[in-house]
Write a structure and sequence with these properties.
The protein contains 26 helices and ten strands. It has helices at residues 6-9, 22-33, 51-63, 77-84, 101-110, 133-144, 164-167, 180-194, 200-210, 214-228, 234-241, 246-257, 261-274, 278-298, 309-320, 324-343, 347-359, 367-384, 393-403, 405-409, 486-499, 501-507, 529-534, 537-551, 572-592, 595-603, and strands at residues 40-44, 90-94, 121-126, 150-156, 171-174, 197-198, 231-232, 511-515, 519-524, 556-561.
């Protein structure tokens, strides 16, 4: 007795039985009922989603004795012969073996003749993308203006290979991947009709391995039924398909999430002992870790995670034990491992070492704790370095600029190359130098800034820089004009950098005119973009709030232009620029007076006229 496989035995015979393609069945059904059926159709999609089945259903609907109807009777001669594939008026052509111009010409010669019995002559070309370019061109005229009794239905898995001239003459229907839940329901229904028992884990494995193809699911179902008999169990189904069972995957995911490298390596060894494909296993592991991330982020969501009740409870327990960021990081590592295993000639070794690497990863530290440690370190560095060497603006930005001077100045260190000179002093150097101190190129590492105060260093490095004025008590400060209280304005901008960095970036360009507990007046150049931004009500209010903390009471806030002020103060940007220039000059002097530089110029005196000094942060 001949056995009929499940994929053929349970092939849909009506549009209502076609699973997962509601957009196609509804459109075709409405077209048939309204008698607006096109002369050519192009069905596209991956294998096993119903393209050829839909073509046969459309042929039956058009030629049924009770039709045209979207529900063929399946009892008349036309329906029966189309189902068996022996109807003389429904031509099913394999595009792979009938792809030449001569094959298309022979087909065209038969099209003008009316069908022998049916209402329409239907031409179904499967894998139409296999036709040659000449065959496609021979089809164009007939496809655009076929006889009234002819309908064309093309099916392909690679629609991009079909010429656009053919696609433009057809109604295109894209068949989608069938959802896993729909496949599970159909598999459960067929098993019930076949009298075979199966647990949820077995059905879930078959549906998951089908990857959206109903035909693949029924083919796998035939295979596992032959392996397990009348009762399907998840573990036996996994063994029959040569894949890892869900329990094994969950154990590996637990070992990785708990950073247990020994357990992960043992799981990989067991995997090799069972002969499971490493690439397929790591893909399954990626899906499992994805489910853990979803459960951790969205909670117990059945529509997002397709697991059995037992698998769901265990996965949910594991997901709740770990932070979402750690699981996301684990997913990223497993995803990279898929590519590594797929490209390797020794996939099992790569899998083992990849699992060990993922299990040995270091934990993530919260960003807030890192920021706190950086601030603590900055406070210690500032406390050890003593008073600020130049202007009060250094207190506002010294930590940032010392950590990354290139970023603070807006230029990279490699761009900070001083111009060469021939007989003229290098920019930033003193105009007169003793002849016994020759000049030459200084290495980058020798030009690091010396943070020792000038008073504690040997040599003549010039007068000590001015010290910042002492900050008076806010309550007794009378408003001063001309930037007399610039240090208060620097403090306000500094605090804004912590809370409102964007606003601080605007106010850095303002010159302080009057800074006091009752009134703040700043000036921008006429037509300044920064002035328009700082004048916004939200920006002004934020600046007043911070100023109140510095000055002791809430002042008024006014913005003017420098043209209205006779003697505006110095902006924070200008103060910091002066400080950077002073520091640069000191670094240049130290570099040129370095003993190695002096010794080098004694050996190469011609280098005295061509000095190139690179200062870090210039």
């Amino acid at each position: 007795m001949t056995y009929t496989v499940l994929a053929r035995k349970y092939r849909p015979q009506r549009f209502s039985e076609l699973e997962g393609q509601d957009h196609v069945t509804r459109t075709l059904g409405n077209a048939i009922e309204s008698q607006r059926v096109a002369h050519a159709f192009l069905f596209t999609g991956v294998r096993g989603v119903g393209k050829t089945t839909s073509a046969r259903l459309l042929a039956k609907s058009l030629n049924c004795a009770k039709g045209p109807t979207k529900q063929p009777c399946n009892r008349c001669d036309a329906c029966g012969e189309i189902t068996l594939g022996v109807d003389v008026d429904v031509l099913e052509i394999d595009g792979a073996s009938n792809n030449s111009v001569d094959d298309v010409r022979r087909l065209q010669e038969s099209l003008p003749y009316r069908p022998q019995r049916d209402r329409y002559k239907v031409v179904i070309v499967d894998e139409v993308h296999m036709l040659s370019q000449g065959a496609f061109n021979a089809f164009l005229k007939t496809l655009e203006e076929p006889p009234q009794h002819v309908k064309f239905i093309f099916a392909t898995t690679e629609v991009h290979k079909v010429p656009v001239t053919v696609r433009s003459r057809c109604q295109r229907y894209d068949f989608r991947l069938i959802p896993r839940s729909v496949i599970s329901g159909r598999v459960r229904e067929i098993l019930k009709l076949e009298g075979i028992e199966a647990d949820d884990a077995a059905i879930s494995l078959v549906a998951r391995e089908a990857a959206g193809s109903m035909r693949d699911a029924l083919t796998l179902l035939d295979q596992v039924v032959a392996f397990s008999g009348d009762r399907l169990v998840g573990e036996e189904v996994a063994r029959g398909l040569g894949i890892a069972n869900r329990q094994h995957l969950l154990d590996v995911a637990r070992a990785l999430s708990e950073c247990n490298a020994a357990a992960a390596l043992g799981a990989a060894h067991e995997l090799g002992h069972q002969g499971i494909d490493p690439l397929h296993f790591v893909r399954q592991l990626t899906s499992m870790v994805r489910d853990l991330v979803v459960l951790c982020v969205a909670g117990d969501s059945p529509e997002l995670v397709d697991l059995t009740s037992e698998e769901r409870s265990r996965a949910l327990e594991l997901a709740r034990q770990h932070d979402a960021r750690e699981l996301e990081r684990l997913f990223a590592g497993v995803s990279r491992l898929v590519d590594e295993v797929g490209r390797s000639a020794t996939p099992m070794l790569i899998l083992e070492m990849g699992l060990v690497r993922l299990a040995d990863r270091t934990g993530l530290e919260p960003l807030s704790e890192l920021v706190g440690k950086l601030r603590t370190l900055e406070a210690k560095l500032l406390g050890d370095s003593g008073p600020a060497p130049t202007s009060p603006a250094s207190t506002a930005s010294r930590g940032l600029r010392e950590a990354n001077p290139a970023r603070a100045s807006g230029r990279s260190a490699t761009e900070a190359k001083a111009p060469q000179r021939t007989g003229r002093p290098v920019r930033g150097q003193p105009a007169e130098r003793p002849p016994e101190q020759p000049r030459t190129s200084a290495a980058h590492e020798d030009a690091k800034p010396d943070r020792t105060p000038t008073s504690q260093r040997g040599g003549d490095a010039g007068p000590p820089p001015p010290q910042p004025p002492e900050r008076a008590a806010p309550a007794g400060n009378a408003p001063l004009r001309g930037g007399g209280n610039e240090h208060l304005w620097v403090e306000i901008v500094r605090r804004l950098r912590d809370s409102r960095p964007a606003l601080a970036a605007l106010l850095e360009h303002a010159a302080p005119v009057e800074i006091g507990p009752e009134r703040i007046v700043i000036a921008f150049p006429a037509g300044s973009f920064h002035a328009r931004q700082a004048a916004a009500s939200e920006a002004r209010q934020a600046a007043v709030v911070v100023a109140e903390k510095v000055l002791g009471q809430q002042p008024s806030f006014e913005i003017r232009t420098t043209a209205e002020i006779a003697d505006p103060g110095t902006s924070v940007n200008q103060l910091e620029a002066k400080e950077r220039e002073q520091r640069r000059q000191q670094q240049v002097e130290r570099a040129l007076s370095h003993p190695r530089v002096v010794e080098a110029l004694k050996i190469f005196p011609e280098a005295n006229e061509n000095v190139d000094v690179r200062v870090d942060g210039d």
